Amino acid sequence: MSLIDRSPRSSSDRAKEDLYLIVLKNEVFRKLVDQQTAIANKMLMGIATLLSTSLHDTNKVFTEKLLSIV
Questions:
Q1: What is the spatial distance between Cα 56 and Cα 62, in angstroms, rounded to a whole number?
Q2: What is the mean pLDDT of the chain?
Q3: Residue environment code for 35-45, b if the CB has 16+ CB neighbours within 10 A, otherwise e
Q4: Residue 25, phi then psi, degrees to nearest 5
Q5: Which residues contact residue 40 at a Cβ distance below 8 angstroms, ignoring those fewer than 6 apart?
């Protein structure tokens, strides 16, 4: 999210298995948005999909917990 809104990172993660990681600085991402629109759009759609999934999962957990106390 911080890549989009320039806020501080909101979490840290730890991998359970080996992976490849790409570090993308905000300035580089902004250049991609300006100069390589198709690539930036694919990246943004991927980010939006991950955020949407995370929000749905959080909403489900929250709703289940709320309903369990009613």
A1: 10
A2: 91
A3: eeeeebeebee
A4: -70, 150
A5: 29, 32, 33
Q: How far apart are CA 2 and CA 40, in angstroms?
A: 15
Residue keyed to tokens 């198709």: 38
Q: Residue 3 — pLDDT band, cuts 50, 70, 90?
A: confident
pLDDT value for 8 = 84
Q: Whose CA is closest to 11, among 1, 19, 23, 26?
A: 1
Does position 60 have pLDDT exceeding 90, yes or no? yes
Averaged pLDDT, 16-23: 91
11 Cβ partners below 8 Å, 6+ apart? none
**Total H helices, total E strands in the chain:** 3, 0
